[in-house]
């Protein structure tokens, strides 16, 4: 079995594992929080449960996006399918936007109604559910984040932040429910609005990152400086005439023009370019492809 095949099998196993943990974990958590919210008369906990339900769809979309992005290039898509992962991240961001707006709307309606005395005081089970959710969702965040880094997956990293936004929203629920139990029932509705703000902030960050990666955005000065220094130290190169990078999903395309000694043969110049090509793709593993043009070095 080749090293490439082993890596693909390992990645597929991780993708299935993350997705299974995310989907089953969120279904169990959503069910518990919905039960606690209804039985405990907490609007904040019901909102939190809806957020967890959105996580189920988010993880499923991340799974589909990552799986489809790893398909081999074909005739209609000669550059591959990596940008499908960005599309999955955009969809995740839109789900979060919708969830946040819905939760915030209910919270604001309860706040501006002014009927605070009519708001039901939440029960202890809602407070327990909030505490359980904080611990569970923070654990799911670190778990998903760990494997998203291994896979270098923007969609699963977005899903990790989706888990953390749920943990943040549960902190808001905990404070709101606790405050309502202490005699300030409006705090349960205020907690829903705070949850909304956290969710919208994460949604914006996820969507912006995905859009940037779909627009051939440069990898940034720090990355290009590191890459330039690395290439300049390769054997046979006289200088770098041009270096451009662009993000393609979670991969990088590089356009490079180098100058070599004009007295070298075409075969020798080609060998230098091939060596740089192989070394860059080996030592910068996110590189999808590097295109190298060779120029004769200016005579001094």
Task: Please explain how this structure is put together.
- The protein has 300 residues and is mostly helical.
- The protein folds into two domains: 3-214, Cation efflux protein transmembrane domain (Alpha-lytic protease prodomain-like, Up-down Bundle); 221-296, Cation efflux protein, cytoplasmic domain (Alpha-Beta Plaits, 2-Layer Sandwich), CATH 3.30.70.
- It is built from eight helices and three strands; from the N terminus they run αααααααββαβ.
- Strands 1-2-3 form a three-stranded mixed sheet.
- A hairpin with a 2-residue loop joins strand 1 (239-248) and strand 2 (251-260).
- Helix 2 packs antiparallel against helix 5 and helix 3 (83-113) packs antiparallel against helix 6 (186-214).
- The longest helix is centred in the first third of the chain and has 37 residues, at 3-39.
- It is elongated.
- It starts with a helix and ends with a strand.
Q: Helices and strands in order, then pairings?
A:
Blueprint: H1 3-39, H2 43-69, H3 83-113, H4 124-151, H5 154-181, H6 186-214, H7 221-232, E1 239-248, E2 251-260, H8 266-283, E3 287-296
Helix pairs in contact: 1-2, 1-4, 2-3, 2-5, 2-6, 3-5, 3-6, 4-5, 5-6
**Largest sheet, if any?**
3 strands, mixed
The helix fraction, in percent, is over 70%
Q: What is the CATH homologous superfamily assignment of the largest domain?
A: Cation efflux protein transmembrane domain
Q: Report the count of strand segments.
A: 3
How large is the share of residues in beta strands? 5-15%
Low-confidence stretches: none
């Amino acid at each position: 079995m080749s090293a490439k095949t082993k890596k693909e099998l390992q990645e597929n196993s991780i993708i299935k594992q993350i997705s299974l943990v995310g989907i089953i974990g969120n279904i169990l958590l959503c069910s518990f929080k919905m039960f606690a919210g209804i039985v405990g008369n907490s609007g904040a906990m019901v909102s939190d449960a809806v957020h967890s339900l959105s996580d189920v769809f988010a993880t499923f979309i991340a799974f589909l996006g990552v799986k489809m992005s790893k398909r081999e290039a074909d005739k209609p898509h000669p550059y591959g399918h990596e940008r499908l992962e960005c599309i999955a991240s955009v969809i995740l961001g839109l789900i979060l936007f919708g969830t946040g707006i819905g939760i915030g709307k209910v919270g604001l309606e309860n706040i501006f109604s002014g009927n605070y005395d009519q708001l039901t005081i939440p029960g202890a089970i809602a407070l327990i559910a909030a505490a359980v959710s904080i611990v569970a969702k923070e654990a799911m965040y670190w778990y998903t984040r760990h494997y998203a880094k291994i896979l270098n997956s923007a969609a699963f990293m977005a899903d990790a932040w989706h888990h953390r936004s749920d943990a943040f929203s549960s902190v808001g629920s905990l404070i709101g429910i606790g405050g309502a139990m202490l005699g300030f029932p409006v705090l349960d509705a205020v907690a829903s609005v705070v949850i909304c703000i956290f969710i919208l902030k994460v949604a914006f960050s996820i969507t912006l990152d995905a859009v940037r990666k779909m627009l051939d955005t440069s990898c940034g000065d720090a990355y290009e400086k590191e890459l330039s220094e690395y290439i300049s130290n390769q054997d046979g190169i006289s200088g770098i005439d041009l270096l451009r990078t662009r993000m393609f999903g979670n991969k990088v395309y590089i356009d490079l023009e180098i100058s070599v000694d004009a007295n070298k043969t075409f075969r020798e110049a080609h060998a230098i370019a091939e060596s740089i090509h192989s070394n860059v793709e080996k030592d910068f593993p996110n590189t999808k492809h590097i295109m190298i043009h060779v120029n004769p070095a200016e005579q001094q």
